[in-house]
Amino acid sequence: MRSWLFLFVLKIGLLVVTSAGADTIAVIGGKVFTMDKDEAIENASVLIIDGKIAKVGKHLRIPKDALRIDASGKIVTPGFMSSASFLGLTEVLAVAETMDFGAEEIVPGTVFDVSFGINPNSTLIPIVRRGGLTRSVIAPMAGQGPVAGFGALMHLGMGAELITHKRKALFVEMGESGAKLAGGARGAAWVQLNLLFHEAREDQNKRKKDDDKTSIPAFKYSDISAATRVLNKDIPLVVSVDRASDIQHAIDLAEELEIKVIVWGGAESWTLANRLARANIPVILDPTLNYPDLFETLGARSDTAAILNEAGVSLGFSMPRLAGLRNESFSHNADKIRISAGIAVANGLPYFAALQGLTSGAANIWGLENQYGKLKKGFDADIVVWDGDPLEVMTNAETVIIKGRLIPPANRQLLLRDRYLPN
Amino acid sequence: MLTILMAIQAVGMRSGIAEDQNGEDGSRNNFEQSFKVRSSYQALSREDVLIENATILVGNGEWFDIGAVYVKDGRIAAIGKIPDVAKSVKRIDATDKWITPGLIDVHSHLGSYPTPAVGSLKDANEIFSHNTAGARMEDSVITQDAGFNLALAGGVTTLQLLPGSHNVFGGLGIVVKNVPANTVQEMKFPGAPYPLKMACGENPKRTHKDRRPITRMGTVLAMREAWIAARTYADSWRRYRENVGESEHPQIPERDLGNENLAGVLNGQVLVQMHCYRAEEMAVMLDVAAEFGFRIRAFHHASEAYKIADLLAENETCAVLFSDWWGFKMESYDAIPESMAFVHEAGGCSVIHSDSIMNGQYLNHEIAIALAAGQRAGLQLSRADAIAWVTLNAAAVLGLDDRIGSVETGKNADLVIWSGDPFSVYSKAEKVFIDGAIVYDRFDQNRQPISDFEIGHMLNVESEL
Fold first, then answer.
1. Which of A98, A268, A274, A291 best tests the B interface by mutation, with the highest count of B CBs <10 A?
2. Strands across the sheet with A261-265, in order?
3. Share of chain A above pLDDT 70, in %
4. Which of A19, A206, B16, B133 could form a disulfide with B258 if both were Cys (CB 3.0 to 4.6 A apart)?
């Protein structure tokens, strides 16, 4: 080998060795909620290698080159996940150019796809991950008709490649907003939705009959192919509904078409808790919605999460939506779902169930059950070290690690804070 | 005074409230109205009580690790170590519980943006004109708003209901006690000063029927023109009163409701509550106020208050803030959660508000968020300091800090007994007192008001509960 080539290889080798130091992190001696068992492990450590959890337990042997994070006296959990937000799709709600939630007009026959609008460089991301949020489902907002479009999954780490799954669920808004978009009444909205699945079925049958070589490949952004993926149980149908009768329709649709349905909203879902559990339909809930802000949420109550959990319904959490601004969720503070979860606990939800809704339970709902949501060997290393109870208002997320990468706590708000810090 | 009243009646001017010509507070017919709230509020049934063994956050920065509060005749009679209370007085053992003053929400649209949030109930913004200074929020309030009772269960005893921020001048707001009532008259806080709602920034630039303002400078133009007109109006009435006793027959000025309220600001009776976010704009507004010789009582929302904390403190203008809402408009893009703490640190007056039914239940969480952010920034702040942001400072915004806002002797017994540290997500208000009456009791179904609207829904549900 030429000497310059040798030196070059040596240099690259050294680089690899030194960055491997940053790729090995040990979070040491905390009260660790692995989410793999019902209880936390006291005085335990988590070893992270190359973005994944390598080991969890008491008395771990920590490699010499590991970055050590002292978690003694602290609480360690997986990073939290929002089951519905508009993160990445907005900067300033009142500035339409920064809003990529949904479109008022789309080409008929196509379906909206949030993934094109997600900005990994959004200022919201460093702010909400500072609060311990490491993952989110990114939802679309319906603009033309009740079919809102494809949602995506993303992590909230650094860099340009944050989306982990595109076109991961099909969102539809039924209830009052869907009815309005369908021409003014639920009768139109639900018929429209049923028609879409009928046409998808017909298309599927036609393709089966056609020769594979001559049939035109499905356009992945057509509403038919989106509905087909739902029919094939490739992706779930997320139905935004709050009123009991609308939730009932969602359950009926799930059973009739044998598809995977997720309810988002669920203000009156407590009236159907057992049915939802039997149908295996998870509910994405805003635990702070305990008031009749609309006629479809007349039955909203503070203990909905507790009732659903008791019946065996899987829960995820989403941000509050203000009355009259139903679709303008507070993504700017998406990390506050941990406080919403605390409110649910204050109203009867068992503590561990609340943590599940923020981590492993959310992972199960969204198909990440082998990758995220537990501090377990082989899982993505999303870890947060808290200085207290993570559901408590005043607790601070001291250390945030996303996919094995230690996240610097800098964000726009902290920079402004430091600029104006009183002397 | 009587001559004027007769003169006004003779001209056939309609009074706002039929029987108020001879009210001791001054007739609304008379330009010299006192601008103090007239109310038919009656305290609910109450008994004297001694609440013992609690941690007490006084509201003024003081606290007691373990103390008692003696409530007598609806007032706070004693606090701390209280010997010699008659055995006949009811005791409440508040061991492991906390007491705070009743929480005060100085920016609420309950009743005018009520639940349910349907169009026919939205009455907070009279947008036919950018200047509706003559309008009165009390004329829009629906008392059967579920939000009032949710706020009550969250410890809120007093609310300032304000017009919205669509108009440069929105009209008079109203301070109410959070008691169940069929009419707003029964809720109005007797003798409270009236607030005037104003707005700067992005919202008043939105469309009005009268097509102005369109820019920030247009907003200030509208304000200054209005203050000039108000001053002219006030002068004409003053001249009229000076001349009335003389033999001439002075021309009685035309009554103008908007100018009347603005004149109330100019003579210091009506408190300006201004929705305003940006530092640049708040500074401009302070100059406008100085130009016309009035004070701005508080800037509301004030996302950038932390940037001009010193200026606000100098002007004794309170900053009514969110803890962490940001990014919904350009003018709130720079909001930071440390804002309340920074304003406090500069010697200013930090106040939390809800502006929503959601936060209106959790004002104790909101100040906790602000406190935590301030502590993390290295400021020396305690719970005893922060509680002021939703009690005594809030009372000052309303001009009522001599009557409510702290657990101090002589003040109205507006109190909350919390199940634990109110800065915890798990704590709940167990008993809420207004003027010494238990208006809300978590453990007594007879003291858990609900609005008429909430009654009778879900009757047909056969849930599996």
1. A291
2. A80-85, A133-138, A147-155, A163-173, A237-241, A261-265, A283-285, A315-317
3. 91
4. B133
Which residues pair with residue B172 across a beta bridge?
B136, B196
Interface contact B330-A94, CB threshold 8 A: yes
Q: What is the pTM of this model?
A: 0.93
Instruction: Return the residue of B nearest to A321 by Cα.
Output: B358
Facing residue for A396 by CB, picked from B372, B457, B463: B372
**pLDDT value of residue B252:** 86
- Cα–Cα dist A302/B207, whole Å: 38
B-chain residue closest to A308, CA distance = B465
**Higher per-residue confidence, B9 vs A166:** A166
**Interatomic CA distance for residues B171 and B164, integer angstroms:** 9
Question: Per the CB < 8 Å rule, is B115 touching A291?
Answer: yes
The residues with which B160 forms a beta bridge, in sequence order, are B175
Residue B27 pLDDT level (bands cut at 50, 70, 90): very low
Q: Chain A residue closest to B370 (CA)?
A: A394
Would you call A421 and B118 a contact, using CB atoms and an 8 Å cutoff? no
CB contact under 8 A, A345 and B326: no
Sort out which chain A residues have CB atoms less than 8 A from B328's CB and list them.
92-94, 328, 332
Residues 6+ positions from B69 with CB-CB distance below 8 Å: B50, B51, B54, B56, B76, B78, B79, B82, B99, B407, B413, B415
Q: What per-residue confidence (pLDDT) applies to A10?
A: 55
- State yes or no: cis peptide before B116, omega within 30 of 0: yes
Going by the DSSP 8-state scheme, the letter that residue A113 receives in this structure is B
DSSP A206-264: HHHHS-TTTSPPPPTTBHHHHHHHHHTTSSPEEEEE-SHHHHHHHHHHHHHHT--EEEE
Q: What ipTM does the predicted assembly reach?
A: 0.92
Q: Tell how many helices (H) and how many strands (E) occur in chain A.
A: 12, 16
Which of chain B's residues have a Cβ under 8 Å away from the Cβ of A420?
306-307, 309, 336, 342
Q: How far apart are CA B357 and CA B113, in angstroms?
A: 9
The answer to whether residues A222 and A204 touch, using CB atoms and an 8 Å cutoff, is: no
CB contact under 8 A, A332 and B424: no
Residue A15 confidence (pLDDT): 42
pLDDT score recorded for residue B126: 93
- Measured in degrees and rounded to the nearest 5, phi and psi for residue A410 equal -70, 140
- Give the span between the Cα atoms of B243 and B4, in whole angstroms: 11
Tokens found for residue B110: 């309950």
Q: Which DSSP letter does residue A421 get?
A: -
